[in-house]
Amino acid sequence: MKLAVIPARGGSKRIPRKNIKSFCGKPIIAWSIAAAHGSGCFDRVIVSTDDAEIAGVARDAGAEVPFVRPSALSDDQTGTIPVVRHAVEWQIATGEAPSAVCCIYATAPFLMPDDIRRGLSVLEQRGGDFAFSVAKHPSPIQRAFRATASGHVEMFDPQHFQTRSQDLEEAFYDAGQFYWGTASAWCSAETLFSPTSTAVVLASYRVQDIDTPDDWVRAEWMFKALQAMA
Question: Which superfamily is assigned to 2-135+172-229 in CATH?
Answer without folding.
Answer: Spore Coat Polysaccharide Biosynthesis Protein SpsA; Chain A (3.90.550.10)
